[in-house]
Fold DNA-3-methyladenine glycosylase II.
Amino acid sequence: MAGRFQPRAPRPTRTTVRGGDTRVPVARPSGPLTGRTRTWTPTAPLDLGLVVGPLRRGPADPTFRVTNGAVWRATRTPQGPATLRITARSTAVEAEAWGQGAEWLLDRLPGLLGDADDPAAFAPRHRLVADVRRRRPGLRLLRTGLVMESLIPSILEQKVTTDEAYRAWRILVRTYGEQAPGPDGMPDLYVMPEPQQWRMIPSWEWHRAGVDNKRAQTILRAVRVAPRLEEATAMDPEQARKRLELVPGIGPWTSAETVQRSHGAPDEVTVGDLHLPGIIGYALAGERDADDARMLELLEPYRGQRHRAARYILLTGRTPPRRTPKMPKTDMGKL
């Protein structure tokens, strides 16, 4: 790994209490605030936004920012909290990381950016897909090597609108997470709560964030066995999904959404989604009312690469005309 220490002016340590007796102090993580750097040269075209975009949970995600062409990501690694800044240059990627997990993140930078992915294994079967693949050659499937950071927001996204899920993630992370380590002047980022902290969130705070009891209880069951779930990163995607689905409340939709990010799984297509079958049915067959079975039938020629095929299809922008209202927002007062 090419890397060297470069000192940065430390940000002032601060502890804040976010109003109310049920909120906990938010302290910046301990650890060195010097940035460790790495430069890595991809072996194939790389579109940084396309690759890391699936990690962003809405435009105000407190763990993810894009500023002046640089991607900032705050996360919780096995070594502790860390912040990663990635900038794509003409032929190379420059990265800098801070915090206890800085070295862990930089060691895995190529995997995060799809170095282990094999786009050449994909063979387009439809003209539409072939065209978008030609126009967007930099799509690669990321691999974070982390389960919980993708599992928890995926649980929050179960059966609600994306706006509701993003709001819940934003509130819970900013309230119960930690200020991300890094240099003075960096974006205001937060590291998601550790498992024990998720377990300490009172029921009324889940309600305040718009999270119903079913999703809250699923998250609580998951964080109780977080070490066992993180072990799934060493498994193949199919076995990893089986491990995740042992937790009540985690089904095929949630496990697929998780391993797509944690494992860079090219074949783990999402089933049970409200919109995806209709989009794929319309793009590939002109059908507006495709269900999961029909979606899988249409994607069968891409077996082994069905998730990648779905990513390309979503990039076409072809969606069926809307005939029904959007999913209604959840009224927490009626739960």
Remarks:
- Residues 1-26 have pLDDT under 50 and may be disordered.
- Strands lie at 5-6, 15-17, 25-27, 35-40, 64-67, 70-77, 80-88, 93-99, 178-179, 190-191.
- The longest helix spans residues 162-176.
